[in-house]
């Protein structure tokens, strides 16, 4: 019997192997969600040409989507807290599907932007629920590993979704890319309905003496998360523009993004193997590699080879970012899993939308040469937050809350 038929009231979390079907379904759904959010990134030149808008205005398709998520994640998570978790998650996948259909058929930029806003509302709920869902599928001491496995789907969306959609869009048109994405969304919805078990909600931490420390730690993780995404997306939203300006042929753009992005799986695997016992060290290494790669991009640009090499280093580091911050946030136990998911979701999308908007300002103002340096400064700021907040990014086991003995474990 597929685990999706389990009753939520009788559901008992198990180990990672027992939860494999559900974790796979969440990873696939997460891949679809991230790809839907970021698919315009590689298609900006095509969309801007077809709809007769500037590339910086087309980039606001990412901004508007992300700001919808940032604004709605907490209120929608609160408003839907009594709904069955599985039904709610499936509902968001249906809305993703509808949004992509509308984009594929949209006659004007305004209709595309409206459809993207609809997808943003779904995204606001999806990640808030899915992060908490993954932590409930397994016993508490395995939550970090479960989150790392699910966020491989997010990493794959960042790493593979954009280059694959870019290659497809370059070959057959950007509208066809959204049609294909619609089909993938529908498949993910069906598999999630079949494989994902129903689990109960709830799980608010106790109001004990450590509650203040846990909430402070969660706020610190959220701040570092927002800065990291802000720095990354200030540059990444316009990666296709950068690579073309560095001399890469349009036909080579998709394959180049795919090859660079695939290297990010190295970072994702690195995080998955270490998060349970080396959260702080893994976070510092991850952000250091991202900052170094983005800074090197600025130094190497507009040289084609150097720009590609720097982007590869940057991608390796960013492949670990989603897993690092989701795990760190859940580990704080500063709120219920769904509220933690909403905060991670909202702050990441503040970074995504703010980065796209900031990148547009820099692109139209100071120029493309300044983009990488702007992004690098923001990633370094995130690293500084991590370095000065040991309680939020502790050493030791991933199942120890801030302020407990488990935090004292060294790395």
Automatic annotation (TrEMBL):
It is a multi-pass membrane protein. The keyword Phosphoprotein does not apply. Pfam families: MFS_1. Keywords: Cell membrane, Membrane, Transmembrane, Transmembrane helix. The chain crosses the membrane at residues 21-44, 56-76, 88-111, 117-134, 146-164, 176-196, 217-239, 245-272, 284-302, 308-330, 342-364, 370-388. GO terms for cellular component: plasma membrane. InterPro entries: MFS, MFS_dom, MFS_Efflux_Transporters, MFS_trans_sf. It comes from Promicromonospora sukumoe. Its main location: membrane. Signal peptide: none annotated. Residues 22-393 form the Major facilitator superfamily (MFS) profile domain. This is Putative MFS family arabinose efflux permease. SUPFAM superfamilies: MFS general substrate transporter. It comes from the Bacteria. One of its GO terms (molecular function) is transmembrane transporter activity. It is found in: Cell membrane.
